[in-house]
Design brief:
about 90 residues; 3 helices; elongated
């Protein structure tokens, strides 16, 4: 697998502003919601969005970790680091 074969993050819906929205009804424990809202400092919708985005990022990270050792890069990290000095 080459590095350009990787699926972009947008494939996983990891965008700050998602382009398509769905209205949903969700039943959650009141205490859990209260704790989550106190953490985010936001309302119900933003708190639920933040949780869903965190899950999407977590899944993408797991899939990228699964690629460890399977992606071929043209340069190694030492060569790339040297390019920053140019």
């Amino acid at each position: 697998m080459k590095c350009w074969d990787l699926i972009p993050a947008s494939h996983y819906g990891i965008l700050y502003h998602m382009t398509e929205m769905r209205k949903i009804t969700v039943e959650v424990p009141a205490r859990t919601l209260q704790i989550a809202q106190s953490f985010t400092g936001e309302g119900v919708s933003e708190t639920v969005r933040a949780a869903l985005e965190a899950l999407a990022r977590r899944r993408a990270a797991e899939e990228f970790r699964a690629l460890r050792g399977k992606v071929e890069f043209a340069d190694d990290w030492k060569t790339l680091r040297g390019k920053d000095d140019e």
